Model the fold of this input.
Amino acid sequence: MKILAIIPARGGSKGVPGKNIKFLNGKPLLGYTAEIALQSKYLTEVIVSTEDEQISTVAKSLGIQVPFIRPMELAQDNTPTIDVIIHVLNWYESRNVFFDAVCLLQVTSPFRTVAFLNDAIEKFTSSACDSLVSVQKVPHEYNPHWAFEVDEVGNLKIATGETEIITRRQELPLAYHRDGSVYITKTEVLLKERSLYGKSITYIESDSDFYVNIDTMEDWKKAEEMVQNKLK
Done:
């Protein structure tokens, strides 16, 4: 299976200015994802999609291809990720290069391992699913069976639609949330359905001890602490 890894990295971060190439323990944040992607034995090609020349230069210094500079209209705060991916696929297809699937790797999840990435790809390729997402367990207090919505008259109703709440924690079904570390999707689903997920989704569970999703300075400080703890 031919799999294209896309690392989206735009220059307009507000929560952590310049975060994609900001140094974390002596290495640009982009470098963590770049190293893992390049080590994977299953990725046919690895590229960065960016509108920023400085990010492009750093990516190339890390050994990552930057085959084009992303148009500015696809590098806005509200630009959907699916639009960025489709732009990449259309660029390749205009050059008669085709892939069976896309692996989306976000720079903001720097601490995935190559073993984890390879396991994710193996699970995806051995399944018949349209996509795979990395997930973590939802703590029981936030389980959707214990969550409420407000109905049309202002009263609470169970978010899952049940009429009776599950009273014992032990009876709650497992629930998961996306953690943003890995997405893998069939190309035909991306192009025809404009979806990262499709009709059927398999999953791989991340190790919460190595999880951080860097969007704010608080997240950045957590990442720094995790690196220091690992070094100790």
